[in-house]
Amino acid sequence: MPLPDTMFCAQQIHIPPELPDILKQFTKAAIRTQPADVLQWSAGYFSALSRGDPLPVKDRIEMPVATQKTDTGLTQGLLRVLHKQCSHRQYVDLADLEQKWGKLCLPIEKFRALLQLDPCEHEMEWMKFLALGCSMLGGSLSTAMKHLCEILTTDPEGGPARIPFETFAYVYRYLSRLDPAISVAETDVYLSSLKDSITPFEAPATGPCLLTPWTTLSFL
């Protein structure tokens, strides 16, 4: 038997004063992020909001760019989101990271395939995972390092994308070791020549920084 229609007057309906702003910010976040599954992403959004964690929200709408050999769904914007959520820890729990990956509506099988490049048991250094994610965005070491610099830089968008040389060298060595076609000697020569040729820039609390460099070495 259907319930009878109930009439309410305006005085009986209480709207929490913070609700309009919550819904407004949620709508703007959904438009910027363009999640593949709005309900799945929304669950992650409100879960993070309730805990006070960084939200799974892109800084801006991304235009589609066909740079990947296969469509993984991963973009630089989504890697930025993961970096905001995870970079406060040196090591990340892989189970927790898999959850964050899933709440961004990214295929779990791609997450597991990425980890096969450098298998770990239960946790992984965040910078290494970020490096592997950058390598998934393109098919060359230069492309991976370009994405890394653009994610890590504190320069304004459209600027030189400077990062500390030590960070660049650490990630470059890590990715080059995963490519059997690149020898340790080649890596050492490249980084040595790069360090000698760049003009250093002092960045607060980070030491010498460099402009985004390029290399033609292949990767993956």
From TrEMBL:
Recorded hits in InterPro entries, A to Z, give: ROP_DD
Q: Which UniProt keywords apply?
A: Cell projection, Cilium, Flagellum
Please state where this protein is localized. Answer: Cell projection, Cilium, Flagellum
GO terms for CC?
A: motile cilium
Answer whether the UniProt record assigns the keyword Transmembrane helix to this protein: no
Give yes or no: UniProt keyword NAD. no
**What domain of life does the native source organism fall in?**
Eukaryota
Family listed: Belongs to the ropporin family.
Query: Which PANTHER family does the record match to this protein?
Result: ROPPORIN-1-LIKE PROTEIN
Q: What is this protein called?
A: Ropporin-1-like protein
